[in-house]
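Quick one: Sec-independent protein translocase protein TatA from Priestia megaterium, structure tokens please.
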Amino acid sequence: MPGATSMVVIGITALIVFGPSKLPDIGRAFGHSLREFKNAAEGIIQDDDKKTPEDTTEDKEEKS
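--- reply ---
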């Protein structure tokens, strides 16, 4: 995880590269993408949790 100094450097670099007018839009797009990624990851985890022991034994038999 980046420290505070690294975050400041990244922020200043983004400000220089994209400019102050586009930075809020880029932040929103990044936040939206991150939220979609987290929701997809949670969905995959929940799908794995929903598997019943019967499903697991069938998978093992198919692999053998």
